[in-house]
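Minutes, methods subgroup
Present: GH (chair), OT, SY

1. OT presented the first of two proteins processed in the latest run. Sequence and structure tokens recorded below as shown on screen.
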Amino acid sequence: MEPVIQMPADAVRIIEKLEQAGYEAYAVGGCVRDSVLGREPEDWDITTSASPEQVKAIFPRTIDTGIEHGTVTVMEHHVGYEVTTYRVDGRYEDGRHPSSVTFTRNLDEDLLRRDFTINAMAYNPHTGLVDRYDGMGDLARKCIRCVGVPEERFAEDALRILRALRFASQLGFEIEEHTLAAMKKLAPRLEAVSAERVRVELVKLLAGEHPELMITAYETGATSIVLPEWDVMMETEQKNPHHLYGVGVHTVKTLLAMHEEPAYLAADEHERMVYDMTMLLHDAGKPESRTTDKHGKQHFKGHPKASAEIARKVLRRLKFDNETTDLVTALVLYHDCRFDLVKAVDYPKAVRHLVSKIGKDRMKYLFTIQRADIRGQHPDYFEVSMREVDRFEREFERILEKEQCVSIRDLAVDGKVLISLGYQTGPELGEALKRLLEVVLDNPEANTRETLMRYATEWLAAE
């Protein structure tokens, strides 16, 4: 039974205008796939027999987004619709871009160049579905399969290897055996793929419903090229009472746990990326930190710092923005910080000092990260560990309720006040503010203008 696809009115109107001008036009690719699956398409792409110049002649508002490859963006009610001419790609000499593009009047030739059967379907609201490569069958079978010969598709663009993994994660599909074999064979070609393109696919894979596809990424050899740190994690065991799994499988368990956390489910796209990348890299330093005692028990002392260093290196290599890199690195560094509190004589004071180091704004991530981490460990320690996190969070909430100072900007005095007392701008001023913060972290009641000015005056007189 052919599916009935509900298209946006503007997308239908674009197709109708092209047809009225004597051309063919279809919605194509991911929007068709997602519609059949009952998912909301992110955007609607249209393929047509009209040339880019002919498309531009029909529509008053267009943008030349990729005109050399036949793509024109048609603007309708402030929404862009990519309209691409049927085309046949030439040889992919660099493993990424076709050396030439030839426009064609044949839809079948255009569909043949696409990556997977589930992305090679076209739909016209008047004539229905065009499915030359059994994409509908593969959707029913929950199967990721290349169009045509898998080796040819991956040789054209090795990024398709990561795209196969990403779609499998997002959709919960299996990768067809010949497609999987070709991925393993051609994984070394990922060397030619840019870091930016790798980043996009990795983020989408992790955000999918099945981040355990990171294990398949390891098995195909893909991560040995784009994320060799992951291979080392997959190959590092953890002989420790707190763990049932090696570092890699533990990490996958924490990713799965993270996706069930209420804070993750309520998060926006960027926040989810922060959570996912933190979980992926939170134990990246364990392989180099591992030691074994005389009883055969393995320890990973100092691994948060080592993990943070690796996380920053990975995030920079994959061209993440500086803000995301700094945030994820900090969260990796402090993901185990609750252990610093267990033996504290003055628990509230210890929490204040810790929050001051981490940053108040980053704490909303930290408790969720710690809970997901615990859920990937041995269940015998689950209850005790969760109580530690709950206590930590309750104390942080008290800090917020009492509006206690945990940063220099929360002090009752600022640099201008200290300058008026005789402090010089520069290192002397900065050091004085840090000392005042330490006073207030030890004793929140000291955060008054009068008290802090007295301390500052006494220090200045003692110099």
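2. SY then presented the second protein from the same run.
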Amino acid sequence: MSVSIRLRREGTTNSPYYKVVVADQRSPRDGKFIEIIGNYDPKKQGDNAKIDISRAEYWISKGAQPSDTVRSLIKRVRKSEVAGPQ
């Protein structure tokens, strides 16, 4: 079973938000998942993503492949954690 970390679309028409989930690659975008590790709201300005970095690192160490978008979100969240609250 190959596992991926990807976005799961939720919300209404023209007002989407996403949950960052760990799922089997074969399952559909909004289908069955293993664990929710964060969320992302593209309509919100500023700090619009919250991801549990420790869980993301755990799944990556077990072989999970993050999608391109999730990879950039993880990078951005790590950068904001290092900078600290302003």
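Chair's summary of item 2: The beta strands are 3-12, 15-24, 35-40, 49-51, 65-66.
Next meeting: continue with the remaining queue.
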